[in-house]
Design goal:
Blueprint: E1 11-16, E2 19-23, E3 29-31, H1 34-39, E4 47-48, E5 53-54, E6 67-74, E7 77-82, E8 87-91, H2 92-100, E9 123-125, H3 132-145, E10 147-151, H4 159-167, E11 170-171, E12 179-181, E13 197-200, E14 212-220, E15 227-231, H5 232-242, H6 244-252, E16 255-261, E17 264-270, E18 273-275, E19 281-284, E20 291-292, H7 298-315, E21 321-324, E22 331-335, E23 339-343, E24 353-360, H8 363-376
Parallel strand pairs: 9-10
Antiparallel strand pairs: 1-2, 2-3, 4-5, 6-7, 7-8, 10-22, 11-24, 12-24, 13-23, 14-22, 14-24, 15-21, 15-23, 16-17, 16-20, 18-19
Length: 378
């Protein structure tokens, strides 16, 4: 497994008394903008060293700010003086690592797209007392594949909460801090029945959408009820290549999602495929049981309905789906914005099938990874 931090960084070079450049691995020279550099000053009057937060508003810096002098201090350090009379010492290697990150990259393990032929699933034996190196392996696999499966989680009430708290903060929703997934009469969600559930993301009607879901099997006496996962990022990437028009329609259509029961009514709008500011795929919002597109011009709806059909059929294609049985003590944790999940139907008359679930936000595992990487560096 490879950290983004191992990418070859650029080299910061002083090319004159007033100019620094980043020499990229391909040989290109990128000038260092004076304001960009000034914002990163760690001088005592510019940054609080305890918090790492600025003591000034960088928007107040003069737009014509310039570098007036650069002193090479050796050991990959430079002292830079600016036209506003500020001076700061910079670690060139540290700046180079930041410059090496592509736009939109948050210094996480590279994503591994997968399809239905994935057989070596990221499975681990649960250990509540695991050391930092072991927990780093877990969270690194989760960030790469979008899911991990643990075995040996105690089959006691609320164990899912304790696992969730290992990776982040449990989010309390209208379902509570945890929810019981089992077939019950008069269910307020189809998850609490025995019917098949197609590939979907949870809670697209919520703002923000829960980033991570955990499902823990307390008991499973049925032969059905297989859990299913689909890498929505892999499917959306394939759709972008195969059918650019359909992909565009799904990134531009604001679909309205709604959930209601006697005490709750939640509504949110999102495109089925969400892009970030760089145009990269940020996440999937898909739940065929809950989506309602607003009335728009017929030609736009024609394009959307065609695109949804293509995308939904790809999501249900066995070529993209994996299936596995959650047995007593198994727990699956998955990225609810990247992955879609579901289950096959089961017969409640065979016996009990009882899962407990909870949600945490995606920034929990991401933060934990960065901390563990920092703490486990040799």
């Amino acid at each position: 497994m490879t950290d983004n931090a191992t990418r070859e960084p650029p080299r910061l070079m002083r090319v004159s008394d007033t100019e620094l450049v980043a020499r990229m691995p391909d040989g290109a020279a990128v000038p260092i903008h004076p304001i960009w550099l000034r914002e990163r000053s760690e001088a005592p009057e510019a940054m609080d060293r305890t918090t790492g937060q600025r003591l000034h508003d960088p928007s107040d810096l003069p737009l014509d700010l310039s570098i007036t002098d650069i002193l090479d201090l050796g050991a990959d350090r430079f002292e830079v003086r600016f036209s506003d009379h500020h001076a700061a010492v910079y670690d060139a290697a540290r700046l180079a690592r930041e410059i090496a990150l592509p736009a939109g990259d948050h210094d996480l393990p590279p994503v591994r797209l997968w399809t239905g032929d994935l057989t070596d699933l990221p499975r681990f034996a649960w250990d509540a007392a695991a050391d930092a190196a072991t927990r780093r392996t877990w969270v690194e696999a989760f960030l790469e594949y979008g899911f991990v499966i643990f075995s040996g989680v105690p089959t006691t009430d609320r164990s899912v909460i304790r696992v969730g708290e290992t990776f982040g903060h449990v989010r309390h929703t209208n379902f509570g801090d945890l929810f019981d997934v089992r077939s019950v009469p008069n269910a307020n969600d189809l998850a609490y029945t025995a019917i098949e559930l197609g590939a979907h993301t949870d809670n697209p009607y919520r703002t923000p959408v829960p980033g991570v879901q955990l499902l823990h099997c307390l008991i499973n006496e049925t032969t059905g009820g297989l859990s299913t996962l689909v890498d929505g990022l892999a499917v959306a990437t394939a759709l972008r290549e195969r059918d650019p028009e359909a992909f565009a329609a799904l990134t531009e259509t604001p679909v309205r999602f709604r959930f209601q029961d006697p005490v709750t009514e939640l509504v949110a709008s999102a495109p089925p495929i969400e892009l970030d500011v760089t145009g990269a795929i940020r996440g999937i919002h898909m739940s065929p049981r809950l989506d309602y597109v607003p009335l728009m011009a017929p030609d736009r709806l024609d394009a959307y309905y065609r695109a949804r059909k293509v995308f939904d059929h790809m999501l249900r294609d066995p070529a993209f789906e994996i299936r596995f049985l959650l047995e007593d003590g198994d727990l699956v944790m998955f990225d609810n914005v990247r992955l879609l999940h579901g289950r096959t139907s089961f017969d409640p008359s065979e016996g009990l099938r009882h899962l407990q679930g909870c949600y945490i936000d995606i920034d929990g595992p991401r933060s934990l990874y960065r901390v563990l990487r920092r703490d486990t560096v040799a």
